[in-house]
Design goal:
Fatty acid desaturase, FA_desaturase_dom, transmembrane helix, single chain
């Protein structure tokens, strides 16, 4: 964690948690038809964009429009639909087609693996070095508390490759590549994980890069490149939104010791300090899956994301009263600080002891129960 720690007394943390619980309870009590209509409307729009975009790829003069429509449909499916539905944000509707436990999305990462690596591991252990594998995705050095190694001289290159291939980086997340590299586990231990990733990736690859191009006949190159570009659009956009929500200047990391036996209020406190918001208009928030309100999302991951913009001013006001920084800024500004951090952490951190926390038992993170729902 940063040397300039911001702390709350146990009493302050309890009150902080109580006020945020009140926000959550009030919104939950108001969920209803308006929210249900919203997610159904977004799904309908996404499907129309996908069908229309794929059709236009068969017409070379309309390639640019078709590619843009398909790219936006993939972004909506990934961000506002898949990510949010799999958090259980619409489980209260009792609609099996949008159940958080069974929904599958259009990206390389199998949904069940995402539900574990993201919904449980990341949201429970947010920004705890050694437990939250989203810190660097097992590829990058994104914290001064990560032990430096010459491997990290490639940090900027790895970051660029992760950005353009983001769906595959996310898919490989559950492999725990850092533990494989350290010798803690072997690749054979992840045989079932690999099988599921290959099954999902093969299906997507055949659809986007074989089946649809073949259907296009002489226009196959246009369909192939259109699909490739749409997937690239989704990858780059998702990477930027997610990294700007977790790693810009001002976000903090924590040690395992700092977070032992934390109360619900302290858990809320960590979520705010470990997250950052992005400012923008309605379309921007929609295309970000409302992860532009990353602070509110980390506080209330199973609250319908469309509600975040409404509660953000109140959450900010609560944070200000308790002296808790509320990090927000425009996308270009936040992303610039992320890039700067990636470059800076390419090299050893001056004055830092180059060691990490003691290696955790492989089963330890999964044994720790989340404080928040």
């Amino acid at each position: 964690m940063s040397d300039n720690k911001i702390t709350l007394t146990p009493e302050q943390a309890e009150e902080f948690g109580r006020e945020l619980d009140a926000v959550r309870d009030r919104v939950t009590a108001k969920l209803g038809e308006e929210d249900a209509d919203y997610i159904r409307r977004v799904i309908k729009t996404q499907r129309a964009l996908e069908v229309g975009g794929r059709a236009l790829l068969f017409l070379p003069p309309a390639w640019l429009l078709g590619t843009a429509m398909l790219g936006v449909s993939k972004i909506l499916d990934n961000m506002e639909i898949g990510h949010n539905i799999m958090h259980g944000q619409y489980d209260w509707m009792r609609d099996p087609t949008i159940s958080g436990r069974s929904f599958e999305w259009d990206t390389a990462c199998p949904a069940d693996q995402w539900r574990h690596s993201h919904n449980y591991m990341h949201h429970t252990h947010t920004n705890i070095v050694g437990m939250d594998r989203d810190i660097g995705y097992g590829i990058l050095r994104m914290s001064e508390d990560q032990r430096w190694h010459p491997y990290y001289l490639g940090n900027p290159l790895y970051a660029f490759l992760l950005m353009v291939l983001f769906q595959y980086g996310v898919a490989l997340h559950e492999l725990e590549t850092e533990r494989i590299r350290s010798g803690e586990i072997s690749l054979s231990d992840k045989r079932e994980v690999l099988r599921e990733i290959w099954k999902k990736t093969r299906r997507q690859t055949l659809r986007d890069y074989v089946a649809f191009p073949l259907l296009a006949g002489p226009f196959a190159p246009f369909v192939f490149t259109g699909n490739l570009t749409a997937n690239l659009m989704r990858n780059v956009w998702s990477y930027m939104i997610i990294f700007c929500g977790h790693f810009p200047d001002g976000t903090q990391e924590f040690t395992v010791e700092e977070t032992q036996n934390e109360s619900r209020g302290q858990w809320y406190f960590r979520q705010v300090l470990g997250s950052a918001n992005l400012t923008g208009g309605r379309i921007f928030h929609l295309l970000s899956g409302n992860l532009s309100h990353q602070i509110e999302h980390h506080l209330f991951p199973d609250m319908p994301a469309r509600r975040y913009s409404g509660i953000a001013p109140e959450v900010q006001e609560i944070c200000e009263r308790y002296g808790v920084p509320y990090n927000k800024g425009p996308l270009p500004q936040q992303f610039a600080t992320v890039v700067r951090k990636i470059v800076r952490l390419t090299f050893p951190t001056p004055g830092k002891v180059l060691s990490l926390l003691p290696k955790l038992n492989a089963n330890k993170p999964a044994d720790r129960e989340p404080v928040a729902a």
